[in-house]
């Protein structure tokens, strides 16, 4: 372990060393390369390389071409030194057989670029390294290397140390189940955070079983009748013939956005109420999976609570069935009884009474049991602000199932796609994005996903909070997010 030894750099490698075991073993070597001229020439060679934009749920930055076989003299010289005598020395003082595997790349982080919380664990990685080649840098510029504490389940908790990039400084840390870190978002618009990074490979540390989060509770619909629909929903979406058009489009693409979904006066009322201080917001984590705020439902203003009930109501489940063709209500016809149920569905959404709002619990249960299973849902009211995101993770992939996603945003007309906060759908274990849903005021987004489709919300960057004080977004937006299961 790095912290259990006294490090003396190998001959020919300069540096002032700092060792620390909190929150996990790491080492900082300042003035790592002895020649300022060498450092300047190395910077020049690196900046002349071709860089490619890299962007997914976890990061956004520019990465160079592969450095393993570059022949530029200073790049090749540093590579030989790192993976030659420095690797041998490091292996000796650690008492670990480090392999000669060359694993190194160059990255440029510029304004709004970021690498979110992760632990670097991948088969064969033993020691991570970063060599900074930056101009004079302050913490206000962002781009710090943030180190996280972990809880008893080996999940990251909070940042307890932030390392500010410094020219010709090498940082090393042990890759382990607790080595959670991030590169914070670069906030300066006129500097480039240039670095070389990679791993020394060797036997991995033993990893405990991965923590499995408890599943999110699901609930059946609330016994609310169509009165809620008539009060809240734009009348055009209650027209049966228009619902049939929506269903045709949805069945073709498995997604649709219904603009101006709520009545305008209702939408404005909820949007203003969401900014009230009475709502209590709780940060959702852990940061290697998500970072946003969710509302405590018992603190919602009355109109916001009513909107929440709308999205959980029996009438709304049936409306979603009509939009999508999914069996989210027993009145939604199976393939062999479309004609028998059409009249009943029209009765429900044309203003005639829905029985479950006045029925006894036993008769309501009987009604729900007409279908093969009871449709259920889970949901949140979320607040997205600078630094919010969700990430793909293994547990999500393992639990993926067929589901209907619903998002209803309250974001202000000036929220822009470049701020982030949009939802991306991707195929499991593939980089290709299948669909991107951008937040748009009062536009109900419906997406039906299968077991091989995952989603994430892109990091909300600094641009979202750098507008005028009179911006209607106030640097944040809100959404109702629900998932419905047949």
Automatic annotation (TrEMBL):
<dbReference type="InterPro" id="IPR051842">
    <property type="entry name" value="uS12_prolyl_hydroxylase"/>
</dbReference>
<dbReference type="GO" id="GO:0005634">
    <property type="term" value="C:nucleus"/>
</dbReference>
<feature type="region of interest" description="Disordered">
    <location>
        <begin position="337"/>
        <end position="375"/>
    </location>
</feature>
<dbReference type="InterPro" id="IPR019601">
    <property type="entry name" value="Oxoglutarate/Fe-dep_Oase_C"/>
</dbReference>
<dbReference type="InterPro" id="IPR005123">
    <property type="entry name" value="Oxoglu/Fe-dep_dioxygenase_dom"/>
</dbReference>
<keyword id="KW-0408">Iron</keyword>
<feature type="compositionally biased region" description="Acidic residues">
    <location>
        <begin position="337"/>
        <end position="347"/>
    </location>
</feature>
<dbReference type="GO" id="GO:0005737">
    <property type="term" value="C:cytoplasm"/>
</dbReference>
<dbReference type="Pfam" id="PF13661">
    <property type="entry name" value="2OG-FeII_Oxy_4"/>
</dbReference>
<comment type="similarity">
    <text>Belongs to the TPA1 family.</text>
</comment>
<feature type="domain" description="Fe2OG dioxygenase">
    <location>
        <begin position="100"/>
        <end position="202"/>
    </location>
</feature>
<dbReference type="GO" id="GO:0006449">
    <property type="term" value="P:regulation of translational termination"/>
</dbReference>
<keyword id="KW-0560">Oxidoreductase</keyword>
<dbReference type="GO" id="GO:0005506">
    <property type="term" value="F:iron ion binding"/>
</dbReference>
<dbReference type="InterPro" id="IPR006620">
    <property type="entry name" value="Pro_4_hyd_alph"/>
</dbReference>
<dbReference type="GO" id="GO:0031418">
    <property type="term" value="F:L-ascorbic acid binding"/>
</dbReference>
<dbReference type="Pfam" id="PF10637">
    <property type="entry name" value="Ofd1_CTDD"/>
</dbReference>
<protein>
    <recommendedName>
        <fullName>Prolyl 3-hydroxylase OGFOD1</fullName>
    </recommendedName>
</protein>
<keyword id="KW-0479">Metal-binding</keyword>
<dbReference type="InterPro" id="IPR039558">
    <property type="entry name" value="TPA1/OFD1_N"/>
</dbReference>
<keyword id="KW-0223">Dioxygenase</keyword>
<feature type="compositionally biased region" description="Low complexity">
    <location>
        <begin position="356"/>
        <end position="366"/>
    </location>
</feature>
<dbReference type="GO" id="GO:0031543">
    <property type="term" value="F:peptidyl-proline dioxygenase activity"/>
</dbReference>
<keyword id="KW-0847">Vitamin C</keyword>
